[in-house]
Write a structure and sequence with these properties.
The chain is mainly β. It contains five helices and 21 strands. Helix content is about 10%, strand content about 30%. The strands form four sheets. Strands 6, 7, 14, 15, 16, 17, 18, 19 and 21 form a nine-stranded mixed sheet that branches. It has a six-stranded antiparallel β-barrel with strand order 8-9-10-13-12-11. A two-stranded antiparallel sheet has the order 1-20. Strand 8 and strand 9 form a beta hairpin. It is globular and about 50 Å long. It starts with a strand and ends with a helix.
């Protein structure tokens, strides 16, 4: 059965019996007390958003060192969304947005110079490696996301990437890092902050606090991981700082439904991985990467157009980018979403999956650009 990278098999996770297409979404755990209210808005019938109900100062106060530590160290299960059963033409599941595609080029940060430290040489790396020079472009745009559940009694962590949008303050991540995958407006998580180039609790560019979150209704009402496990967090920069794009840069994107890429990269902050000890990851304190080719996850099912690549990153890596041309022109083509687990809840194999990035991904990015 599939399982999201946030799920830690070795600590407090119970896997229930699912159908062969079922996916388990999880995230990293945390703990507090307080209530939260918010407003649900939607300018399109297929896309929902939620406005975050705390000011930047309140969010900075909320995230005490202890809560951040618990978020980084402890996983928590979330509802078990079912993969969407699709009919008709492969890759069409976005309702009214059936003709949409979207792409954009990356935007380096304003301080970027023509000279920069070289990124790691491309090679097939399925056993994830640490990223060096995390605060240098282009990995300066990748960061760690922290948030709480609706009741503010658990704390979670994911990964995300600054993405090129008109508002210049957008983070691309997995939908299961933003919303529980069921319950509609009641399913949104709370208290989002994004720390780009995070490394061992350092924040070289500061905290970018959440303003609003956006996901497709196929996720918020049904937890579809085939085409819908992606979303957008809009953030506010630290006081005195330029916007997110100018500060750390923004990766481009190519959302046209492709699944096969050569020399793709996956980045994230895993706290555990397939077939290796958790101690290799220090509770997600390292930015890690894999490199290799991606393929279509069809497996005799013509409507399963997920992207898969060989990469051992697990809990904490969800929401991190699958991207191409990272050294020269970083372009997001997928998002770390889930893995398969055996009957004991342990990761079953080396495969890491992304929802297909075509119609729904395009609808989301076009929605934010037109807002």
């Amino acid at each position: 059965m599939p399982r999201t990278p946030e799920s830690r098999p070795t600590k407090n996770f119970l896997v229930s019996a699912l159908t062969t297409t079922a996916i388990v979404a999880g995230s990293l755990l945390i703990a507090s007390s307080a209530s939260a209210t918010g407003s649900q808005t939607s300018s399109e019938s297929s896309i929902s958003s939620w406005t975050i109900d705390k000011t930047p100062q309140q969010l900075r106060t909320f995230w005490t060192p202890e809560r951040l530590r618990q978020a980084a160290a402890n996983p928590a299960p979330t509802p078990e969304p079912q993969a969407k059963s699709k009919g008709g033409k492969k890759g069409t599941s976005a309702g009214a947005e059936t003709s949409l595609t979207a792409w954009a080029t990356p935007e380096p940060p304003v301080h970027f110079k023509n000279t920069r430290p070289p990124i790691e040489a491309l090679a097939t790396v399925s056993v994830s490696q640490r990223v060096s020079n995390v605060s240098s472009w282009p990995t300066s745009a990748v960061g760690r996301l922290f948030y709480s559940n609706q009741a503010e009694t658990q704390w979670f962590t994911c990964s995300g990437t600054s993405i090129s949008t008109n508002n210049q303050n957008s983070v691309w991540t997995a939908a299961h890092c933003l919303h529980a995958g069921s319950g509609g407006s009641a399913g949104w998580y709370r208290n989002f902050i994004f720390i780009p180039a995070y490394s061992f609790s350092s924040n070289p560019y500061g905290w970018f606090t959440g303003v609003s979150v956006l996901a497709h209704n196929d996720w918020t009402n049904g937890g579809d991981t085939t085409s819908s496990d992606m979303g957008i967090l809009t953030v506010s920069p630290p006081s005195g700082s330029p916007n997110l794009t100018n500060r750390v840069g923004a990766w481009g994107y190519r959302f046209i439904g492709e699944t096969g890429f050569t020399n793709a990269r996956s980045y994230g902050y895993p706290a555990l991985g397939y077939n290796r000890p958790d101690s290799d990851f220090a509770d997600g304190e390292y930015m890690m990467y894999c490199e290799g080719d991606t393929t279509d996850a069809a497996n005799l099912n013509p409507f399963d157009n997920r992207i898969q690549m060989n990469c051992d990153m697990g809990g904490g890596a969800s929401g991190g980018p699958m991207a191409i041309n990272v050294s020269s022109s970083p372009t997001i083509v997928g998002t770390n979403s889930h893995r398969y687990a055996d009957s004991l809840g342990n990761y079953a194999d080396i495969r890491l999956f992304s929802s297909n990035h075509s119609l729904i991904a395009s609808a989301l990015i076009n929605h934010i650009n037109n807002s």
